[in-house]
Amino acid sequence: MKILHTADWHLGKRLDRFSRMEEQISVMNEIVEIADEQNVDLILIAGDLFDNFNPSTEAVELFYKTLKRLSRNGKRPVIAISGNHDSPSFIDAPDPLARECGIILIGYPKAKISPFALEDFKISKSAAGFLELELKEHSFPIRLLHTPYANEIRLKEYFGENKEAELNNILEKHWKETADEFCDEKGINLLITHLYMNKKGAPLLDEPEGEKPLKIGNADLVFSDIIPEQIKYTALGHLHGFKNIGTEEKPVVYSSSPLCYSFSEAGHAKYVSIIDAEPNQPVSYERIALKNGKPLVRKTFQSVETAVEWLNENQNSLVELTLESETYLKAEERKLLYQSHNGIVYLIPKVKNLETDENSLSDINLNQDIQTLFRDYFKSKNGGQDANEDLINLFNEILNP
After folding, report:
1. What is the dihedral of CA 65, 256, 132, 35, to 10 degrees?
2. Do 276 and 287 touch, CB atoms closer than 8 A?
3. For a designed S-S bond to 110, which of 154, 158, 268, 363 qualifies (C-beta 3.0 to 4.6 A apart)?
4. Residue 25: CA atoms inside 13 Å, Cβ hemisphere, count?
5. pLDDT at position 261
6. What residues contact 350, with CB distance under 8 A and at least 6 apart?
7. Alpha-carbon radius of gyration of the chain
8. Cα dihedral value 98, 275, 251, 113, nearest 10
9. Contact (CB, 8 A) for 297 and 313
10. Residue 349 binned pLDDT confidence (cut-offs 50, 70, 90)
11. Hey, which residues does 79 pair with through a beta bridge?
12. Strand 2-6 relative to strand 222-223, pairing
């Protein structure tokens, strides 16, 4: 059996003022094509389906159309859980209709999915936080433990958490009891969750820049050693880089986001994970690189001319541009940079500080005119650098509105 694992779509996400919708449409098409080319039997989407609780109409339409295509109109099961960016009630809302298309949407922890049957597969068993699938083309079942993102309020509501209990203890108990009851060696046993998970004792993994953090102190850090021994593959969401924090025999995998969503991800490759599984055997998996989406690039230049040359040669990118110079950028230089490339997300001017003698003291002549005083003040605060004419003109406008 083949399974495709993806996560962190963040549909509707923007990068500052730049929409990523066109790129998201392209990469969703690519994921559908990979699923079909690989002839996968099941799709798992591990949370952060949207970028916020109230996604745009465009983002919602793309989500439903993509799921329908992934499901082959009900012939292939698609299971998607909510992440910390998603509204669980919004994710749950279309579930009765989605099931008719083979799509199972799970918004809340410990959800119990009502059994149903379609022509090509059925849910044969269901319990809180668990479901069992039977596919017409396979003689063995798939068992899936599912835990969407659980914040403190949801933990109290769904797991009976008290202030003294640790998240690891709560989840370990629930997962173990469920696996012991339903997961024997006669089926394929999987876990899907959207949590900040890491191997005990390993260095902390960086959460995505600009994302809502899940790990606050160590209270929300979940350790991979609490995963039940019956589970052969754990499909994770939240971190945007592809990483297996488990073992080769029992992978615990962040599949990565489909696009680079912040400049901390600049240059990172993005993937989906394709799992080969059979009962009572270790799984194997491979990562397949995604090719769509504009590259995010961080560049630093010493001159406007060099920056413009590079920008002209790299039009299909989104850029964080730092310009180091001896003086502040002039208005016409900024205009030239923006005219040469329509994908400059951030322009960061950086003036090189000149060496000054920190011990030297100078007298301030308060009898000077205010413009001269401003020039002296600016110079003292900027390593001896003179204010350029643009700044002087602006200062004069303030003085004489």
Report:
1. 50
2. no
3. 158
4. 7
5. 94
6. 322, 323, 324, 325
7. 27
8. 20
9. no
10. confident
11. 44, 104
12. unpaired
Amino acid at 303: S
pLDDT at 216 over 50: no
Q: Above 90 in pLDDT, residue 41?
A: yes
| CA within 13 Å, CB half, 85 | 23
What is the C-alpha separation between 227 and 233, in angstroms, rounded?
10
Q: Give the E-state strand segments of 256-381 in sequence order.
A: 270-276, 284-290, 296-301, 318-325, 344-351
Separation CA 278–CA 285 (nearest Å)? 12
Q: Band the pLDDT of 163: cuts 50, 70, 90.
A: very low
Cβ(10)–Cβ(21) under 8 Å? no
Question: For residue 42, what are its two tokens?
Answer: 């099941």
Q: Measure the CA–CA gap between 104 and 132, rounded to whole angstroms.
A: 12
CA 283, CA 239: separation in Å to the nearest integer?
Answer: 22
Closest by CA position to 195, among listed 154, 235, 149: 149
Give the pTM. Answer: 0.84
What whole-number distance in Å separates Cα of residue 390 and Cα of residue 392? 5
CB atoms within 10 A of CB 90: 17
Contacts of 240 (CB under 8 A, 6+ apart): 8, 208, 211, 254, 256, 257, 260, 261, 265, 268
